[in-house]
Write a structure and sequence with these properties.
Shape: globular
Bound molecules: pyridoxal-5'-phosphate
Cofactor: pyridoxal 5'-phosphate
Strand order of the largest sheet: 4-10-9-8-7-5-6
Keywords: Aminotransferase, Pyridoxal phosphate, Transferase
Distance between the termini: 25 Å
Number of helices: 15
CATH superfamily of the largest domain: Type I PLP-dependent aspartate aminotransferase-like (Major domain)
Oligomer: single chain
Pfam families: Aminotran_3 (PF00202)
Helix content: 25-40%
Protein name: Aspartate aminotransferase family protein
CATH topology of the largest domain: Aspartate Aminotransferase, domain 2
CATH class of the largest domain: Alpha Beta
Order of helices and strands: HEEEHHHEHEHHEHEHEEEHHHEEHEEEHH
Family: Belongs to the class-III pyridoxal-phosphate-dependent aminotransferase family.
CATH architecture of the largest domain: 3-Layer(aba) Sandwich
């Protein structure tokens, strides 16, 4: 590598001595100093094209001038005042806007928090209170957050669940419908939705449906490797929920706010969920989460059952209002669709040339490039993913991997076609370097990933 990263390395060394490493998922030694749009600058002045958007938290890119202006102006008026005790206009303005764009042609209510994890915890409370039932169903491979409720709903990684038990009881996990690695060996044309039998069997043999409060699903399985569920699976799951008085809840923390070429991921399936969990890009990097749900569900808890001193921060509210404006004015939902398709086509083209790419899938600007050791066995190629991400970083692109082998392509929706072309050229060069054996093994000592 011919660039200087001395300052970055010294920051990494300091971090290792003071920060609990249980909170780190390193891919490369990047210390961020600046970020504008789809460009990140490190502490040594090196620039990178961002294909990660801070894990889908920056759909409008970094430090968008309109967002910066909104935050700055609000900071001059007041920075915060505990919302459970008082009221303010930024919140009520934002609440109305979000209620208007979230799916569901029924009366809704909203509540705010600080991070996607707390919103999932809150969702459990509302689902239990409204239904009077305690059990919840979520999916193997899912990540819903790091608080106790959210971690109990998640089933991504044993390290997240080790040593901390007992977790919140009543959480059951079933397989996400994965057409690429179909557990029944089916192709989509021959599929009879065998995967839904797991839920039906659960209801028949060990999980009384009348005790289940909610099913929580991501519209695209995010950290499980960007798996796209078949539409007919979603429809069937929804109808099973309705038949059994079970709430259908979507976690839009990662896929919301234009990322999939629609306002929300679930809009691709024409389903109206009972509750929607929001976070990440809602406020363009400012801390904020929200739960939006049917009025009667959101009014089922008695006050003060779900409050946070720092929630509904007016800076975050103003950033969120500006986020919605930017998404509309810059037609970012259309960009997500058209540039997302363009990226997918380019990766599919690479798939024809490199055996190592087993699958390319995605909607809008959530695209997964599944790296395998063998196209028949589909064995996950973790070393390839780690090395390709590392080499791409060395050459000026921030790309990471999830599910141990899937390149995570989630750039800010403001990225230009030129930036996409440059990034994909660099990623392709990294793939070639990997195949030639030109990326050393010591890279693997740093890169851990999800
Ligand atoms: C789908 C999903 N839900 C919830 C969360 C947790 O959000 P946060 O990290 O903001 O608490 C994440 C984070 O990656 C996520 O991807």
């Amino acid at each position: 590598m011919n660039k200087n990263i001395d300052k970055c390395i010294s920051i990494v060394e300091k971090d290792k001595k003071i920060y609990a490493q249980s909170g780190k998922i390193p891919y490369f030694p990047l210390a961020v100093k600046k970020g504008h749009g789809a460009i990140i600058e490190d502490a040594d002045g090196n620039e990178y094209i961002d294909m990660l958007s801070s894990a889908a938290m920056l759909n409008t890119g970094n430090s968008h001038p309109k967002i910066v202006e909104a935050i700055t102006n609000q900071a001059k008026d007041f920075i915060h005042y505990i919302y459970p005790y008082v009221y303010h206009e930024p919140l009520v303005d934002l609440a109305k806007e979000i209620i208007d764009i979230t799916p569901g042609n029924f009366e809704k209510r909203i509540i705010f928090g600080l991070t996607g994890s707390d919103a999932n915890d809150g969702m459990i409370k509302f689902a239990r209170a409204y239904t009077g039932r305690s059990k919840m169903i979520s999916f193997i491979g899912s990540y819903h957050g790091s608080t106790y409720g959210a971690i109990s709903l998640s089933a991504l990684n044993l390290n997240m669940r080790r040593k901390i038990g007992p977790l919140v009881p009543g959480m059951h996990h079933i397989h996400y419908p994965d057409c690429y690695r179909c557990r029944f060996g089916k192709k989509q044309c021959s599929c009879n939705l065998e995967c839904i039998n797991e839920l039906e069997d659960a209801f028949k043999y060990y999980l009384p449906p009348e005790e289940v409060a909610a099913v929580l699903i991501e519209p695209i399985a995010g950290d499980a490797g960007f798996i796209i569920p078949p539409k007919k699976y979603m429809e069937k799951l929804y109808s099973i929920c309705k038949e059994n008085g079970i709430l259908f809840v979507v976690d839009e923390v990662q896929q919301g706010f234009g990322r999939t070429g629609k306002w929300f991921g679930i809009d691709n399936f024409d389903i109206e969920p009972d509750m929607v969990v929001l976070g990440k890009s809602i406020a363009s990097g400012m801390p904020m989460s929200a739960i939006v749900g049917r009025k009667e569900i959101m009014e089922s808890l008695d006050a003060p059952a779900h409050t946070f001193t720092g929630a509904a921060n007016p800076l975050s509210c103003k950033a969120a209002i500006a986020t919605l404006e930017v998404i509309r004015e810059e037609k970012l939902i259309d960009c997500s669709k058209t540039l997302g398709e363009y990226m997918k086509t380019r990766f599919k083209d690479m798939q024809e040339r490199y055996e190592i790419i087993g699958d390319v899938r995605g909607i809008g600007m959530t695209i997964g490039v599944d790296l395998v050791k063998d196209r028949i066995t589909k064995e996950r190629n973790t070393d390839a993913a780690a090395k390709i991400c590392y080499r791409s970083w060395e050459n000026g692109v921030l790309v990471t991997f999830i599910s141990s082998n899937v390149l995570r392509i989630q750039p800010p929706l403001v990225i230009s076609k030129e930036q996409i072309d440059k990034s994909l050229d660099i990623i392709e060069e990294a793939i070639k370097d990997y195949l030639k054996g030109n990326i050393p093994d010591d890279v693997l000592e740093f890169s851990k990933g999800w």
